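Re-running DNA-binding transcriptional regulator, XRE-family HTH domain to confirm reproducibility after the cluster update. Everything else is unchanged from the original entry.
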Amino acid sequence: MSNLDAKTKAAGVKFDDIKAQLMDDAAFEDEYNKLQPRYELISQIIEARKSMKMTQEELAKRAGTRKSNISRLESGSYNPSLDFLIKIAKGLGKDVHIEIR
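Result of re-run:
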C-alpha cells in the first residue's frame, strides 16, 4: 500500500458510522425516514440509467424533458409529479409501481 493510500484510508470516515451517530437524534431520524422513499426512488433511477450506460441528456430526450430536469431530479432538489416519474420510467424502458404499506 502506498503512502497516499495509507493516508486516505486513515483519514476516511464511513458513512454508516456517521449515519449511526446522526440517527441518535430523534428529529434527524424522523426527517431521514420521511425522505427515505424519495431517495430510494432516485437511487433506482440513477442505477437504471447508469446500467444502461445512458447520460442524463439521453434520458431527457427519451422522456421528452430537459437535461436540467433530470439533473435536479437525481440531485434530490426537485419533487417530481407522478406523471413526470412515469415519463422517466418509460424513458428507461421501465414501469412505475406504487405500493402503500
